[in-house]
Amino acid sequence: MKRDVTVDGRPSYICFSGQDWWYFSRAHSDFQLMLRVARDRPVLFVNSITMRMPLPGKSSRFWMRIWRKAQSMTKLLRRPVPDVPGFAVLSPIIIPFYGVSWLRRFNAWSIGLQVRLALRRLGMSRPTCLVTIPTAWDVLAHLEHGPVVFNRSDRHSAFEEAHQGTIRAMETELLRGADHVLYVSDVLMRDEAAMVGNRALFLDHGVDADHFRRHPPEDVPADVRDLRHPVIGFFGGFDDYVVDLDLIAHVARSFPDATILLIGDANCSMRWTEDLPNVRWLGPRDYNDIPAYGSCFDVAIMPWLDNEWIRHANPIKMKEYLALELAVVSTDFPEVHRYDGVIRIATDRDSFVDLIRLTLADGGLATPEQRRAAVVDASWDRRAAELLEVCEG
């Protein structure tokens, strides 16, 4: 296999992410891994080329999604992190109608052209390709590149808004064609073992344990400092195919004297929170401030839907909660059982409420120090080193 190089001899990387630098949380694994790789290797981070066009009747808040993506595409190629000059972000102009064959081909050609121009400008040639989103498969045909590493963080064909047949076909081609396939889900890795074979590797998510440290009460942000306790909290994205909003409402009704504190952007309507007086939805907050907000939680919750997407997921916030020493109550999904000694796991909505009540009474499983110790060694620096070993070892 021909090694990928840049003009100065250093390996270079391109990441086709499922996220967008300009509006997704910096906590996502693509950002965390590639920022660390970029400390001494050139990296081109390609913002999400998406899996579908948001449409009325099929996508919630579709105009917001279109406007947000359009704003991102105006930024083109930039270096957004001054102290990591090797990290460049490209926001390609896209036409995401993947169910229409000729538009799909034109879109792949157009994105490929934009990526080639960006690589030329950055002095990068034959980069190693880290692919998180399956729609990048078509684009790779238009690039000269080195090894392809499929970062299989989710089963994207389970996403109901996408053209599932097309996405499933792209996933299959990536699984067959990638030099390495990285998994964060043991269940998904086992499901695809026959197809991937010895190219499969488990690379767990990490956590920035230095960032996610518990803050003292005086450092809690002013807008939550006077909340009524206990505070039952959640931080992260509110997507209606991931988060069980009805379960959160059930928790709010079950604990009328508690504050249900919700922090994060939403791709779905959050007007239901207006009918529950003890629910505070603050919307998104800066990644740098999230640990201070989380430090006011008495119980942190992971209220996931029971669907195929979640069954193959490994939420990063699980480690972030534990790094903050928080008592955690979660719905049941396979990856949470890695931490069943420090996280309480509910099997239905009533037991979810019961376990929150128990946690408020006894402080949760294990000690705060033991919760943090369960994840403190899972640093993103270590994960990035493991990734480079896969790509260059």
Structure description:
The chain is of the alpha/beta class. The chain is 33% helix and 15% strand. It contains 14 helices and 16 strands. It has helices at 29-37, 62-73, 101-122, 136-140, 164-177, 186-191, 193-196, 245-254, 290-294, 308-311, 317-323, 349-362, 368-373, 380-392; strands at residues 5-6, 13-16, 43-46, 77-78, 87-90, 124-125, 128-131, 148-152, 180-183, 200-202, 231-235, 259-263, 279-281, 299-302, 328-331, 343-346. An 8-stranded mixed beta sheet has the order 4-5-3-2-7-8-9-10, with helices on both faces. Strand 11, helix 8 and strand 12 (259-263) form a beta-alpha-beta unit. The longest helix has 22 residues, at 101-122. The radius of gyration is 21 Å and the shape is globular. Mean pLDDT is 90; it is low at 1-7 and 53-59.
Total helical segments: 14
Percent helix range: 25-40%
Distance between the termini: 13 Å
Main sheet: strand order: 4-5-3-2-7-8-9-10
Could you list the spans in which at least 5 consecutive residues all have pLDDT below 50?
1-7, 53-59
Structural category? alpha/beta
| Rg calculated over all Cα atoms | 21 Å
SSE arrangement, N to C = EEHEHEEHEEHEHEHHEEHEEHEHHEEHHH
Task: Say how many strands there are.
Answer: 16
Strand content: 15-25%
On the 0-100 scale, what is the average pLDDT? 90
Taken from the alpha-carbon principal axes, the silhouette is globular
- Summarize the main sheet: 8 strands, mixed
